[in-house]
Specification:
This protein has 456 residues and is α/β, with parallel strands linked by helices. α12 links the parallel β8 and β9. The longest helix has 22 residues. The protein starts with 9 loop residues before the first helix and ends with a helix. Bound molecules: pyridoxal-5'-phosphate. This is Putrescine aminotransferase.
């Protein structure tokens, strides 16, 4: 059997890692100097590293381990499925039980008439599917000129060429020739950083109207779709003003363009409902899902589409697919994960019990002298670090440095919190207990204190 039992000291593993392993979104030289933190096991909301430290995971891995670590039921469902049918494809009129059952379950859970699923192995792949889906939809409806897809600056929709183009991360566009043609971006609804003198309400309306302006600039007859996360995650957990989504909904309906809700982070209980679309009150034509679908135990994602989109696309052959679309083992694990989330009342608990508790505690971080605002929806939240609360100022000269310092202090205090520029973000496993929430807030506060001293 391939040997995974470790007998080597941490420093040696770190050197090997730096020598041979290219990491996503990691500075190579820094990795060589500092070495990666090596995670060896996990249970519930807690990680253990190669030095034996117990670390509270405030990020659910990468926004995905919604059910928490160490669930034997998911291991058993994978083992069973691997023995029975480890792989078969879903191309050319073949199917299998796990894909059929998971599609049925997702159609039950999804809002409105979203009742068909096209499977992928990740959010990036699913968003690439979406680009082709919406353009093919309009081609099949006799409007092939509708190719433009509108997205938002600072959005994250994945790292492939297509999904990276949909995203609005300028650092990503700067590498490798992104974006592909016919993708357009408007500004994000980040009132704290970009709202100036406007009220939150007016700013939300103004940012939504940028969508209308962009549609008119491109010509409504040329626009295929608008894509957005109900609550932006990787951009820094930007909770939009309440006025934003109702106005966006009006605009997409008025101009008859498709709405794609990227639920890769917001889906499967993260915002206190099964989907973020339900939390912010929108009716998408397509939802992108991944991450929490299997709680990250195996890679699986997909596009859940409306009966209208499915029937138009189904009128012909969609020349698109991945070897692992609907992978039986990943689908079986996802199905079991959805069963547990449902039967254990985990989504309801986020909405009614632990979510409100976390909100109260998390918002108290705004009393810290270095924190401007603390915003949270369900179990995804962020704090804005500021040298001057009244002016909503940023640490301009070296943006990101204070956030980085904070993240390092959190790490040292055995808490995983991420930073995006000068915003610190959390997205813990949905099973986090009240005691663990208390520990998270106490460690975050301590880390902020220490970072503030270091920043001076
Ligand atoms: N969409 C959103 C909103 C995401 O947050 C992510 C990943 O963080 C993706 C898409 C890409 O998903 P994946 O990393 O599974 O390709």
């Amino acid at each position: 059997m391939a040997q995974l039992t470790n007998t080597r000291p941490t420093a040696e593993l770190q050197a090997l890692d730096a020598a041979h392993h290219m990491h996503p979104f990691t500075h190579g030289a820094e990795l060589g100097q500092k070495g990666a933190r090596i995670i060896t096991s996990a249970d519930g909301c807690w990680l253990t590293d190669s030095e034996g430290n117990r670390i509270l995971d405030g990020m659910a891995g990468l926004w995905c381990v919604n059910i928490g670590y160490g669930r034997q039921e998911l291991v058993d469902s994978a083992t069973r499925q691997m023995s029975e049918l480890p792989f078969y494809n879903t191309f050319f009129q073949t199917s299998h039980l796990p894909a059929i059952q998971l599609a049925e379950r997702l159609a039950q859970l999804a809002p409105g008439d979203l009742d068909h699923v096209f499977f992928a192995s990740s959010g990036s792949e699913a968003n690439d599917t979406n680009i082709r889906l919406v353009r093919t939809y309009w081609e099949m409806k006799g409007e092939p000129q509708r190719r433009a897809i509108i997205s938002r600056w600072n959005a994250y929709h994945g790292s492939s060429v297509g999904s990276g183009s949909l995203g609005g991360m300028k650092g990503m566009h700067a590498q490798g020739g992104l974006p592909i043609p016919d993708i357009h971006h408007i500004d994000q609804p980040n009132w704290w950083s970009e709202g100036g003198e406007m009220s939150e309400h007016d700013f939300g309306i103004a940012r939504a109207r940028q969508l209308e302006e962009k549609i008119l600039e491109l010509g409504p007859e040329n626009v295929a779709a608008f894509i957005a996360e109900p609550v932006q995650g990787a951009g820094g957990v930007i909770v939009p003003p309440e006025s934003y989504w109702p106005e966006v909904s009006r605009i997409v309906k008025e101009y008859g363009i498709l709405l794609i809700a990227d639920e890769v982070i917001c889906g499967f209980g993260r915002t206190g409902n099964w989907f973020g679309s339900q939390t912010v009150g929108i009716e998408p034509d397509i939802m992108t899902v991944a991450k929490g679908l299997s709680s990250g135990y195996l890679p699986i994602g997909g596009s859940i589409v409306s009966s209208d989109v499915a029937s138009v696309i189904g009128g012909g052959e969609f020349n698109h697919g991945y070897t692992y679309s609907g992978h039986p083992v990943a689908a079986a694990v996802a199905l079991e994960n959805l069963r547990l989330l449902d039967e254990e009342g985990i989504v309801t608990r986020v909405r009614e019990e632990t979510g409100p508790y976390l909100k109260e505690k998390f918002e108290s971080l705004a009393e810290h002298p270095m924190v401007g605002e603390a915003k949270i929806v369900g179990m995804m939240g962020s704090i804005a670090l500021t040298p001057d609360k009244a002016r909503r100022a940023a640490f301009k000269a070296d943006a990101g440095t204070v956030g980085y310092l904070c993240r390092e202090r959190c790490f040292a205090n055995n808490l995983v919190m991420r930073h995006v520029g000068d915003r610190m973000i959390i997205s813990p496993p949905l099973v986090i207990s009240k005691e663990e929430i208390d520990a998270l807030i106490a460690r975050a506060w301590k880390s902020l204190d220490e970072a503030m001293v270091e920043a001076k």
